[in-house]
Design brief:
Cytochrome Bc1 Complex, Chain A, domain 1, five-stranded mixed beta sheet, alpha+beta
């Protein structure tokens, strides 16, 4: 059997400040750079159904100025660095990368906006306008742009994954009041709800000292205990056909699967790779290269912390009825329940996964973000065990995952058809 990659161990130390802020430090003197990453345990799943899009709005507001800093981009650029952020259903993450000798610039920036944002009507109005324009451009102004709105609503009926991160409707952002925004900030963007990772060319003790210096006196806030409604098992096939301004038909099949903390998560991840990871994968080889059923096809998992989705999406070849294409795909998916993936095929995919893990850890910022994420889901040390989890998956595990997920009653279908059809 071919040898699998082995991850290099990522050494780190974790301490918790008196205000509850978790601080993780990873020394890496092979680089002149340092990364400062702040992860907040808040995403779109924490929003009020009547005020969705707030977590994404805050990603923008956090760059709109804070108590002592009217502009975040200027200082970080003068320090030779860059910063950015992303939000999803489960978390909000802010990151900075800069020369290690200038690390305090990033600490100053992040601590000041954690302490207090610039809660002015002017700042809010500016960012509301930016977010609404993004909503219109990304969701309403491009073909298939509203897919996630339809797919989330069709697949989830109780859980807050039923709306996308950008929000249900622009009006939820347009109508956001200053007091609503302040309440959301002081509930979630507090030290007790955050993880700070400092990684790069800095001595461990100095990094912890800087964390205490810049963040130690910020008021802790109240720990948020999350109690979300759980989704009931899907018991019947769901289907929605959308006629719209799209250039060609598109099919999207979503299957419920376990969440990120489930022991079988890695089996489902590799199952999606069996289907669509490279030109030799099942769906691409059979549906695109051999039988020309699709012009392109993909399979992926959402990777969410709570139970998520395995999604198959593709565009049928011109002239082929979309329903016929769906029937062919469903037959192929269900057939995976009846056969085991060959050991050699699985080893090849594991090597791809592990090589990606190895190469991602060359980048100091990737290591910082990974440490923060694994701490969020329970243990930063999982960064050093993830390869072992993938290596432990057997062909029987993948077959069992296929049998569990690829059931017609577990499927939700969104099909786009051009308006002139």
């Amino acid at each position: 059997m071919p040898q699998l990659f082995r991850q290099e161990m990522v050494a780190f130390e974790k301490r918790i400040l008196s205000n509850g802020l978790r601080v993780i430090v990873h020394e890496d003197h092979s680089t002149p750079m340092a990364a400062v990453n702040i992860l907040y345990d808040v995403g779109s799943r924490d929003e009020n159904p009547e005020r969705t899009g707030f977590a994404h709005l805050f990603e923008h507001l956090m760059f709109g100025g804070s108590e002592n800093i009217p502009d975040f981009d200027g200082p970080i650029q003068l320090a030779g660095g860059e910063n950015n952020a992303f939000t999803n259903a489960d978390m909000t993450n802010f990151y900075n990368i800069l020369p290690a000798q200038n690390i305090e610039t990033a600490m100053w920036l992040e601590s000041d906006r954690m302490k207090s944002l610039d809660f002015s009507q002017r700042a809010l109005d500016i960012q509301k306008k930016v977010v609404v324009e993004e909503f219109n451009e990304v969701c309403l102004g491009v073909p298939y742009g509203d897919l996630w709105h339809h797919l989330c609503a069709l697949t989830y009926k109780k859980h807050p994954y039923r709306w996308p991160t950008i929000g249900l409707v622009p009006e939820h952002i347009k109508d956001a009041r200053l007091e609503d925004v302040e309440d959301f900030f002081y509930q979630y963007y507090r030290p007790c709800n955050a993880i700070l990772v400092i990684a790069g060319n800095i001595e461990k003790e100095r990094a912890f000292d800087l964390a205490e210096k810049w963040f130690g006196e910020i008021e802790s806030g109240s720990f948020h205990h999350r109690e979300l409604p759980q989704e009931d098992p899907q018991t019947s096939y769901r289907k929605q056909v959308i006629k719209g301004n799209v250039p060609m038909p598109s099919i999207n099949l979503a299957f419920h699967m376990p969440g990120r903390l489930d022991p079988d998560y890695y089996s489902y991840d590799l199952l999606s790779d069996v289907l669509s990871n490279g030109p030799s994968s099942r769906l691409y080889r059979r549906m695109v290269k051999e039988d020309s059923i699709f012009t392109d096809i993909d399979a992926f998992i959402t990777g969410s912390i709570d139970p998520g989705l395995l999604i198959v999406t593709g565009k049928p070849t011109e002239g082929l009825d979309p329903q016929s294409a769906i029937d062919i795909v469903m037959k192929e998916l269900i057939s995976l329940s009846d056969e085991q993936v060959k050991e050699q095929e699985l080893v090849k995919l594991k090597n791809k996964v592990e090589s990606n893990l190895v190469f991602s850890e060359v980048n100091i910022l990737n290591k910082a973000m990974s440490l923060a994420y694994f701490e969020l889901i329970g243990d930063a040390g999982e960064i050093n065990r993830e390869a072992d989890h993938y290596n432990a998956v057997t062909p029987i595990d993948v077959q069992r995952a296929a049998h569990a997920v690829f059931r017609k009653e577990n499927c939700s279908e969104i099909t786009y058809i051009p308006s002139d059809n």
